[in-house]
Amino acid sequence: MKRVSVILLIILSFSAFAQKTDSTKKQLGLIVKTDILMPFINGGSASLYNYDGKILKAFSITVEKLLKKRHSIQLTFVSFGNSTHTFIYNQNPITEVDRYNDHIIAIMPEYKFFVSKKRNHTGYYLGVSAAYMYYFVRDLWTETIPVGYSSYNNINGPATLSGIHKDNGQSIAYGIINGVQYYLYKNLVLDLIAEGGLTRQIGLSGFNPSFFAWRLGLNLGYKF
Fold this sequence. Notes:
Blueprint: H1 2-19, E1 30-35, E2 41-42, E3 45-46, E4 57-67, E5 71-91, E6 94-114, E7 123-145, E8 159-184, E9 188-202, E10 211-223
Antiparallel strand pairs: 1-4, 1-10, 2-3, 4-5, 5-6, 6-7, 7-8, 8-9, 9-10
C-alpha cells in the first residue's frame, strides 16, 4: 500500500500543478498510467502475498495514444515476482531447504474502441490485446544429512548437499479487452480494464497447449 500511496501522491501533485499552467496549450493526446491493482491481482490470479507472507513486488506502466475521436492504442510493460520464497522440508532427521526465486516481465500492445459518441475517448470500450511474456526461475537447494542416515539418493551422512536449478520460458497471449475510462479534473484518468484470452508457451519442445487466462486492472494516470 505504501507504493500505491506514493504513486497517487505523485499523480495528484502533477495534476494540481498542470491546472495552473496555460490552459490553451495544445493537448498531446497521450496518457501515462499505472495499474494500482498490480500487487494484488496479476497473471490471472488474485494473490496479495507470496509464499513467505510478503507482498508481491509488482509494477506496470502504460502509455496510451488517443487517435481520432473513438480509437486509441496503448503499450503496457509489466514486471512482477522477483522475490525469494523459502521452503523447509523437515523429514527427520534429514532437512532440505529450497530458496526459490521467480520473475516475470511482459509487454502488451492493445487497441481500444470507445462505444460512446458523446465525448471523445470516454466511457465503455472494447478492444483486442496481445502479449509477450518472459519468465525465469532459480531454485537453490541445500540438504543436510546427519551421521548414520542416508538420503533418497543413497548418500550417507554426515553430508551437506546443495545445487541450483535454473529455468527460463516464454509465452505469447492474445485476447479481448473491455472496460470503462473516465477523466477527473480534466487530466486525471481512471481506467478499469478486464481481459480474457489464451496463453501459450513457446520455445519448448513437444506439445504446448493453450490455456485460458484473465486480467483485471485499475489504471490511474495523467493525460497530456
